[in-house]
Amino acid sequence: MRIAIQGFEGSFHQIAAQGYYGKQTEVECCASFAELVRKVKQQPDVDAGIMAIENSIAGSILPNYSLLKNSGLHVNGEIYLEIKQHLMVMPGQTLEDIREVHSHPMALLQCMDFLEKHPHIKLVETEDTALSAKHVAQKKLKTTAAIAGKLAAELYGLDIIAPSIQTAKNNYTRFLAISRNGIAPAPDANKASVYFQTSHERGALAQVLTRIADAGINLSKLQSFPIPAKEWTYYFHADMEFDDMELFNKGLETIGSLTEHLKVLGIYKKGNTH
After folding, report:
1. Which residues belong to the active site?
2. Res 142 pLDDT > 90
């Protein structure tokens, strides 16, 4: 399969794509999440996409929820990826040789405890972790290191001289598998992504949440978004976990009369961690 990802070869999006679709997965690299969505929608040779949606430390990637809602695409599944940042160099180099470290600003920030122990090293912000690794390899930079994922080191022939240098050791990013066409839920499906809008009446959202709980559904995510041109009116993205598909469907029916524009983006099996 050919899967659209945000970023370059060797990025965490590619690791997630391989974890979800298999090691032989080909990737279509995209410069932005908007381009990713566009290619999944319009490019015939792109079968699906993998898109980051939230991080256990940084929180939700809010623009991606809006992109997903407006795209008309379907959620087919999810995968949780542990984010491990590694310091990588040209073969033969040591930590003492390094004068600069290149990486995305977020990756540098995630590794600040380690980097502050080496004040002689200059930090250089770049647009992508994997691209930083590719730059070091292509230019054969002898005094420059990159911070990126393990796959980048493998693809570009770099040595990891300091593994897992991220400060927070429990750092996970959740990725959604998205496609043009929805798929029938698997028999063991136990999670759904849903959008809905409530009226502006007092207690309207509370009634919806009560009905969801009464149906035996666990609300694992609830994200609100303002509706443009409608003052103080919101729509919601909800991730719902359940044990019984029939009870889930009945739960949706019970909240249908309390919501507007209720839309199921996808019903799938809760993702594994890689």
Report:
1. 173, 175
2. yes
